[in-house]
């Protein structure tokens, strides 16, 4: 390992493998060392009771956001968000929040385990069966929707890195036959034997009978490891990962028997995960940015049921991805409208105060351990805490901001002066959060 285990790298790990990086948590990870810090993330505390889905999706989203904000199982929740995007299922079609809540529980229970288990559970999941029309997949009229997407999006992908197709139309037809009769009854998986085609099928060169065999074959493919490794790296690290990185993680996937936890551990221990590129080549999604910022700043939230609406304005409505491919991500998060909403959230979080404020952020907590800090030290502490890699010019502008009054006369930093803190320090945090670099942290 050539990575220097310092505050910046420990903070980067916690932000990417969870939601935000509160200073105390970063300091603990720093004391633990890299490997132990990674292993702690992969062994979350018990996650508590599950939401039963009663109520609308805004209620379900608020419940999930509460779990993210608690920070008790950050990687578990982050991984559930990844799988929610990977196996994108929307209430716009399913129309039953209870089914979406159960699917969310499935991601939490099996998200870090063998992918073979997760893929089978998702294939039997009522929300997925409804979403991709498998309840209409019957022996006399096979429906190919799920059979196609389970290969194209969920496992092997359309083609390998050299452009060779990973499956054929015959594989789609035969997989559809194998999944006939996989249906729903009383909001639960139901195998309808009368509608299942029990005949022999030839899938990817193997003779099979049922959907379980399709799942086993797909999960065991090294190409599935490549497809998943690429998506996991793009979600947790950066876009367009190097081929050697993806190949190495695919090797771990195969060697571990499709173990997702093993792939994550290998990912979080790679030097590339802590590279400059990893800090500058990934736009954080609205959920990641919003929850992470609230947790990093230690802010209270007066009305958490407002957060789902805020996130929808930024372009990410939980339980309602735009289509089966999930959210497009990347620069798609940075439309003019969504960026304005992100900036509005950031500024409100930093400057709101008083009894009716939506957020309760105490700026002085950011400077624990610093005695009479200089303006440069104040700016550096805010940038470091928020993980923002600002240029020297931007840093200089921020220092000038906190040392200059509106009438252009100088002012000395004084964290004991409540007015100075409420105007200059809150303003500093707001300015940092609205920098373009803040979206990359």
Q: What brief labels describe this structure?
A:
441 residues; mainly alpha; two-stranded antiparallel ribbon; 22 helices
Describe what this molecule looks like in 3D.
A hairpin with a 2-residue loop joins β3 (201-203) and β4. The longest helix has 16 residues, at 336-351. This protein is mostly helical. The protein has a two-stranded antiparallel ribbon. A two-stranded antiparallel ribbon has the order 3-4. The mean pLDDT is 94. It has helices at 7-17, 23-32, 34-41, 57-70, 74-86, 91-94, 97-110, 115-123, 126-131, 145-152, 169-178, 211-220, 222-236, 243-255, 260-268, 276-280, 286-297, 307-314, 336-351, 375-386, 392-402, 418-433, and strands at residues 182-185, 188-191, 201-203, 206-208, 300-301, 359-360. α5 (74-86) packs across α7, α8 (115-123) runs antiparallel to α12 (211-220) and α19 (336-351) packs antiparallel against α22. It is 53% helix and 4% strand. It contains 22 helices and six strands. It folds into two domains: 7-279, no CATH class; 363-440, no CATH class.
